[in-house]
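Writing this down once: the sequence line spells out the residues, with the fold written below as integer tokens. This is how one looks:
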Amino acid sequence: IVPARSEAWVSLRTMPTIDGEALVTAAAEKAKELGLEFKREKGGGYVWIEPDSPVIREMCEVAKCEQPKTVCYGTDGGEFTELKRMVICGPGDIAQAHTSDEFITKSQLEQGIDIYTAAIQRWCTR
């Protein structure tokens, strides 16, 4: 069965030092060569926060973590890059997220509640 019309979309989120424009240009050229419509949509950028920044050090204190780490996954945080004090933090394990059997354990949820409570007390009740 061949449908009368098909649509596909691709999302590209590059790392901070990678431009990605050459890849977008190559995809647009290939689409044109194949007679396909290529429409570029604006999306959020990457999120990069220096690991030694004050806000990261403070969040590590709140979360009781030894060392911050860089991870590669998507977040809506790229829409808020104008914020001066931004941290991406949440409970659970990224390996369990966004899968067909996504889940979070009760203990992970409770740990998240503890972290959010400590963050609110630290920064919102001074």
Remarks:
- The two ends are 64 Å apart (CA to CA).
